[in-house]
Amino acid sequence: MKKTITLSTWLLSSLLSLVCLTTNAQAADYQTATLAGGCFWCTESDMEKLPGVVDVISGYSGGKAPNPTYKQVSSGKTGYIESVNVTFDPNVVSYEQVLDQFFRHIDPTDDQGSFVDRGPQYRPAIFYHSAEQKHIAAQFISEIEQLGIYKKPLKTELIAFEKFWPAEDYHQDYYQRNPVRYHYYRYASGRDQYLDDIFGEERNEHPKTLRELIDASKTVMALKPYSRPSDEKIKAMLTDLQYDVTQHEGTERPFNNAYWDNKAPGIYVDIVSGEPLFSSRDKYKSGTGWPSFTKPIDKGYIVTKDDNSLFYTRTEVRSRFADSHLGHVFDDGPAPTGLRYCMNSAAMRFVPKQQMQAQGYGDYLAEVE
């Protein structure tokens, strides 16, 4: 019997073929990172949270004997290390970003095991799949080492990838299949307590990547250093209002402060240290009664942090070297930044344009003109 193909059937078949071709082409672009960070239940759980990661499989790598079992590997005599195979889309996340996520969830300084799990089968390692991966990993480890965020030297091995053996089925997605047992093990292992100590207890709610920390460190190193005087000297040099604002996170009255309506060209510097903060060129009339700016004169001298002193969270602005409370930044400002740095006049000193060179701020004249 002659088969009749309708137009709709042909269109559906063509569409399905196109989807399959697109999916296969996309899968062909995927890359793999093989990483060992102690217990693979935990490493798998943490790596699957990274956007761009397609799949994570728990298993074993580094040994020679075929088809290793968990019992064999856990003996520590096979040469295998508990590992994960991370499949990721390089169009979404880079190999370095995968490593960044990895390092922020392990102890990379312990080559004798991982937290409560002891033995070489739990030591940290990166199994590189290419010369490029090896180079990226080595460079990133070097930068992390220079950052000095960990309290001991890094001892994460770089090992040429040879073979990955998936672990038994009951190990896959263990954190999802056995959430109670997993959370009990993870807490008892001390992993999260260690990570909180290194990265802070707010690391999950407000994560900062190692790359961000490295770049921030480089920025600080490139800055002209300023010093914070002793507490006694600060108290002696400031008025009561200036001291309350900068040292006790106080707030001056709106429309009744030195610079809210100042229109003169110049820069505003920290009242305690003198570090440059804002330019008159970026100052605008916000209607709030406090001096407002669209951006700092140099982001390196500004530090932001969450402020939960009221019934909602605000973003506090402090100076980097003096650690003075300056004010807050809001996202209701004008173009081009859309930000409003709402500052306290009492936290700043104004340096008129004609005095900037003499006071050592000549490098910022271009920011005023």
Automatic annotation (TrEMBL):
Protein's recorded name: Multifunctional fusion protein
Q: Which InterPro entries match?
A: Met_Sox_Rdtase_MsrA_dom, Met_Sox_Rdtase_MsrA_sf, Met_Sox_Rdtase_MsrB, Met_Sox_Rdtase_MsrB_dom, Mss4-like_sf
Known function? Has an important function as a repair enzyme for proteins that have been inactivated by oxidation. Catalyzes the reversible oxidation-reduction of methionine sulfoxide in proteins to methionine.
Q: Which UniProt keywords apply?
A: Multifunctional enzyme, Oxidoreductase, Signal
**Family statement:** Belongs to the MsrA Met sulfoxide reductase family.
Is-annotated flag, keyword Oxidoreductase?
yes
The primary gene name is: msrA
Name the Pfam families on file. Answer: PMSR (PF01625), SelR (PF01641)
Every MsrB domain range: 231-353
GO terms (BP aspect) = protein repair; response to oxidative stress
Instruction: Give the enzyme's main class according to its UniProt record, as a single word.
Output: oxidoreductase
Signal peptide positions (record):
1-27
Q: What GO MF annotations does this protein's record show?
A: L-methionine:thioredoxin-disulfide S-oxidoreductase activity; peptide-methionine (R)-S-oxide reductase activity; peptide-methionine (S)-S-oxide reductase activity
| Gene Ontology CC: one annotated term | cytoplasm
Q: Which organism is it from?
A: Vibrio xiamenensis
Look up the domain of life of the source: Bacteria
